[in-house]
Amino acid sequence: MALWFDETYAGKIRFGLKLKRSLFSGKSEFQSVDVVETEEFGRALALEDAWMTSERDEAHYHEMIVHPALTTAPRIKRVLVIGGGDGGTVREVLRYQEVESVVMVELDKMVVDVCKEHLPSFGVPWDDKRLSLKFEDGIAYLKNYSGEPYDVILIDGSDPVGPAEGLYASPFYESAKRCLAKDGVLVSQTESPIAMASDFARIVKTLRASFVRAEPYFVPIPLYPSGMWSFTYASDSIEPSAFDPARASKIEASARYYNRDIHRAAFAQPSFVRALLAR
Ligand code: SPD
């Protein structure tokens, strides 16, 4: 009998993949953790039965959560990643030689351990000396942080339910802003404008209340509900499309998804998105 793994979203949308086999299935202190080998998407990670990443389309997500920020921020020496336990986001950040330190704050150590073992193709340089891993709550980390400001903060959380809910709320964005350089850039994953339209609009508007500008941008991620996904670029002074040509072309040369045309085009808003954000 064929084996399938489905994500069901809100009881109304289902996306399933036919499996070759299960590689890991366990429960951490926080959530269920599964890694499966699928017929079409390669190996994939699911948390609480929601797809998080797959070999097939992880580059879309990880390149696009990182490169719009890292090619436009005036300084990229100090980068903070909240979440991102599979390591794809820090892998992309560590491609920049200008980055001197990356702190990754992930709540669930099991996610990192399982991804190190079962998703080796992600090629995460876990031993890079610039990377510090902290296993703690990102919300508390930023609330209590009193060190030097970060140049870039990337929020690679799961969907806004359970322990991740606070990553999409005003008190967290205010803490993040306090810990960010005045001319720093924050990018967060911000859900689907189709499958999660009201969450998407609420999160963008919440970011707009904390930052001078917060511009959503769009990336196809076939693994996620509806396939149309968003990130939002928030800053008090930086123009999201004004990338440094030298940084961007260097990244483009070895990227699977990101290039300079995609960077510019990703910020174009379909009319239904304009309408959602105008309400
Ligand atoms: N519905 C999926 C939301 C996933 C957000 N984070 C994915 C982790 C990839 N590093």
Summarize the biggest pleated sheet: 7 strands, mixed
Catalogue the ligands.
Answer: spermidine
Strand content: 25-35%
The tally of helices reads 9
Count of individual domains = 2
Return the structural class.
Answer: alpha/beta
The CATH topology of the largest domain comes to: Rossmann fold
**Fraction of helical residues:** 25-40%
The run of helices and strands is EEEEEHEHEHEHEHEHEEHHH
Q: Looking across the biggest beta sheet, what order are the strands in?
A: 8-7-6-9-10-12-11
CATH level 4 superfamily of the largest domain: Vaccinia Virus protein VP39
Overall morphology: globular
CATH class of the largest domain: Alpha Beta
Measured between the Cα atoms of the first and last residue, the distance is 48 Å
Mean pLDDT: 97
Radius of gyration: 18 Å
Count of distinct strands: 12
- Low-pLDDT stretches: none
So, CATH architecture of the largest domain? 3-Layer(aba) Sandwich
Keywords, separated by commas or semicolons:
279 residues, alpha/beta, Spermidine Synthase, Chain: A, domain 2, Rossmann fold, 2 domains, 7-stranded mixed sheet, 5-stranded antiparallel sheet, globular, binds spermidine
Protein architecture, described:
By secondary structure, this protein is an alpha/beta fold. The protein has 2 domains: 4-54, Spermidine synthase, tetramerisation domain (Spermidine Synthase, Chain: A, domain 2), CATH 2.30.140.10; 58-278, 3-Layer(aba) Sandwich (Rossmann fold). It contains 9 helices and 12 strands. It has a 7-stranded mixed β-sheet with strand order 8-7-6-9-10-12-11, with helices on both faces. Strands 1-2-3-4-5 form a 5-stranded antiparallel β-sheet. The longest helix is centred in the last third of the chain and has 14 residues, at 197-210. It is globular.
